[in-house]
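Why do we care about 3D structure at all? Because function follows from shape, and shape follows, mostly, from sequence. That is the central idea of this module. The next example makes it concrete: a single protein chain, its amino acid sequence, and then its structure expressed as tokens.
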Amino acid sequence: MITPRYLLPFDSKRAVHRFADVLVIGGGLAGLRAANAVEPNQSVLVVTKDQLRESNSAYAQGGIAGVLDPDDCFESHVADTLVAGGNLCDQTIVDMVIREGPRRIEELVRWGTKFDQDDGEISLGREGGHSYERIVHARGDATGKEVMRAVIKRTRDTSNIDIWENAFTVDLLTYEGRCRGALIFNANDQPIMVWAKETILCTGGAGQVFRESTNPSVATGDGLALAYRAGVQLRDMEFFQFHPTVLYIAGASRSLITEAVRGEGAHLVDCNGERFMSIYDPRAELAPRDVVSQSIIRQMTKTKHANVFLDLSHLDAEHVMARFPGIAKACSKFGLDITSDHIPVRPGAHYMIGGVTVDRQGRTSLPGLWAAGEVTSSGLHGANRLASNSLLEGLVYGTHAGEAASRAAAEVPTNMVVPRIQHPVHARHESFDVADVRVSLKSLMGRLAGVERDAEGLQEAVDSIRSFAAYVMPHQFDVVEGWELQNLLLTASCIVDAALARMESRGVHFRSDFPQPDDQNWRRHLTMQIDVDGGHPKADSMLPTSESVEVGFSVEG
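And the structure:
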């Protein structure tokens, strides 16, 4: 495990101080839902490092899973989630989130979200791993954009919520064992100490750790790194979900091809035009994402081809164009007609399943800090997220975290004590090529810690990341690109250390040297946490069957 360093990139005497009852870090669906859950008599500050529209939430194509069909039931949705989760979900959490789902979807409708309809009723789609049609979607394959449009409007219209865009959160501020807010650089590169009674972390995912990813450029694992540096417990960092079908055009940016395409009946074929999914799983194209991703990788290896293809040519062309206008437009840029041409796809990093450990209210291990959405490990997803459960989790946990933080803030005295900030020491200022290190990191993560992993490759990744970190982590940056690189390195380090420690295959974590799940030894969570007082990882309990683990893991049954 590499050692994180807290380095204030400025003279704290020139910092501006700002106070808020509740600070929300992150402007995706979870963050904005949390902000809207705070009582109207309390001040809320939402900070996001880009525009509000730039988040994983906005790029979500498939939709939101919810039991709305009279023929469907909560028990079925729960069962599907548990099956996909690789026997590692928290059933109590799964039941809570799914039963609250319809209420949150109806709330979005009241806030102005225009979901697609058939004959006056919300239309429902089906995706891999689901037993019924229960996915609400909007504008065909642009659900995230429509949901975020409505939620952003409501948030901007709410008088007690202030929004800072293009504001980068460098680190959490902690004092006497409690989170007190965050250090933020605004759009004018002005350092601001935001002191908050309660802070909610909703920073999203970390797909930019990998070369092939569906995530926007902002998904650099910032929240995970912020939390880890502050001594907050992380959990299940080895579980990173790869989406099976990412548009693969050499030299072009990657675009997600939603799960719903296969839900509508699309086939996966190899370079010879042969359907292959039934060889690997009887559910064929409707198998869960981990199964489909692993099957695609094996078929690519078998055929010695860089990708496989989605085939929609047997489906009604008019329906396909109406259902997937965004995908049709994206493919047309490369001369592809989705109604007749084979669409080249391969797996890409998509969703961070592990993250900051939270309870059912969104409480983290650090008093004063709450979290919601993709940055968390709530117990809903287990070892593999069921399609379209992520926006659902963001809505439910955003609500819970916002309400809980609001209640806690009401108990904190108004006259907050502002601690004196100590200046950093031993910082380095040598110049180096940040972009080159970032590309190298992303490449090695895709090659050594992707869909399939083994001990040799993971150890190589550990050693390479440690080598990068030796000169990157002590460096004192004053630009976003440098801070992001440090966050990417720290997040990558957590992922590969956890993946090396879990000596089995479960859900999205596939070890070719341990290809089977091992419930007796590994049906458990792996947590990691540093001792911020001593600066060293806690290691009160080591992993089973290992005598040489040096990272700060503990094991939860």
